[in-house]
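Priority: medium. Attachment 1 of 2:
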């Protein structure tokens, strides 16, 4: 429901101010290199956590992995934790994800439906259930973890779940687990694109 107020965007407002100017109008464009990308070595295991619109970059990751496999490259495991409200209403890429599983671009898919049953089910709950697999991929196989989506709740919950997982599976104290996760981030193996 709108508030009745007109809200103009930054770019559209800038273009509107350029109207009526004689001659050529030039728009400043700034390119930024993204650090949120697949490892250079496609055999490195990846874990992706992206509920809702957080799935967007991971669709690109899976398309790239499909192309790499087609080119004969060996792929490491790829696990996706995805979440949406309900299977019937907003599991929009179900067929695409099933095809990625069938092709081998995706090794495992864990889907959380937050409004499907009596209890809310979120991606971090699936991460807790798959703690052994996550620990194996991150610690033993030196994999990468990517998180994309809501910064206010989901990313914080996923981070807490990761720290708890490192404590439990790695036999570390809370401080040691936080340090391990920080080292993972510093090494570029735990990346977040959150808003």
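Attachment 2 of 2:
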């Amino acid at each position: 429901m709108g508030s009745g107020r007109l809200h103009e965007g930054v770019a559209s407002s800038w273009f509107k101010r350029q109207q009526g100017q004689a001659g050529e109008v030039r728009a400043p464009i700034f390119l930024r290199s993204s650090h949120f990308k697949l490892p250079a070595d496609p055999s490195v295991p990846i874990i992706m956590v992206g509920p809702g619109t957080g799935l967007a970059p991971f669709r690109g990751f899976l398309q790239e992995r499909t192309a790499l496999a087609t080119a004969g490259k060996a792929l490491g495991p790829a696990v996706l934790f995805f979440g949406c409200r309900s299977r019937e209403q907003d599991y929009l890429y179900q067929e695409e994800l099933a095809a990625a599983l069938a092709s081998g671009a995706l090794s495992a898919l864990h889907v959380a439906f937050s409004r499907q049953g009596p209890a809310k089910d979120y991606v971090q709950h699936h991460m807790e259930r798959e703690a052994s697999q996550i620990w194996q991929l991150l610690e033993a196989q030196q994999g990468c973890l990517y998180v994309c989506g809501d910064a206010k709740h989901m990313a914080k919950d996923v981070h807490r779940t990761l720290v708890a997982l490192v404590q439990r599976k790695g036999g570390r104290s809370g401080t040691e687990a936080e340090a391990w996760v920080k080292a993972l981030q510093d090494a570029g193996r735990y990346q977040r694109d959150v808003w």
